[in-house]
UniProtKB/TrEMBL annotation:
Protein name: Nuclear transport factor 2 family protein
Domain of life of the source: Bacteria
Native source species: Hymenobacter busanensis
Pfam families: DUF4440
InterPro entries: DUF4440, NTF2-like_dom_sf
Taxonomic lineage: Bacteria, Pseudomonadati, Bacteroidota, Cytophagia, Cytophagales
Length: 160
């Protein structure tokens, strides 16, 4: 049920933000795409390094963060989960990243694929997660770009 609600929220938000069918390839949108891509990479790095000041800045106060297991957090809960060691990231590798900017560079939808490396499981086996994700970012005139929505889904491990 939570997953359905999250998906419905994502679709509604995307519809509201992207009233136009395709992003316009103008200078504002192109600049926003580059800026958001760089911020995505910085945010992943901040999650690994536990840079709480950066995370406080880039996560909107009304953030909806839906983990790949369906659990949802708001901004304060998610950042606290990193502080408490419930969300631990040894490394996050960006494998694919696509940014589409809308509304004269004031909104962006990001989708990508990442690999998250976490501390080994108790039996010593590696703890690696391959995720596809979607992020919605809004450019606040005072605060800059902020993540308002994160949704991820685990991908099957590649067979060798």
């Amino acid at each position: 049920m939570k997953r359905l609600f999250s998906l419905a929220t994502l679709v509604l938000l995307a519809a509201l933000l992207g009233l136009q069918a395709q992003p316009k390839p103008d200078k504002k949108n192109m600049a926003a795409q580059k800026e958001v891509e760089a911020l995505e990479r910085q945010r992943f790095e901040a999650q690994v390094k536990k840079d709480y000041a950066f995370l406080e800045k880039v996560f909107a106060d009304d953030l909806v963060y839906t983990h790949s297991n369906g659990k949802q957090n708001g901004k304060a809960d998610y950042i606290q989960s990193i502080r408490d060691g419930k969300s631990v990231y040894d490394k996050i590798e960006v494998e694919a990243l696509n940014v589409r900017a809308y509304n004269d560079g004031k909104a962006a939808v990001v989708n990508g694929t990442i690999t998250i490396y976490q501390p080994n499981k108790p039996d010593g086996t590696p703890n690696v997660a391959h995720l596809k994700y979607v992020v919605v970012q809004i450019k606040d005139p005072k605060k800059g770009w902020q993540v308002v929505l994160w949704q991820s889904q685990k991908q099957p491990e590649a067979k060798s």
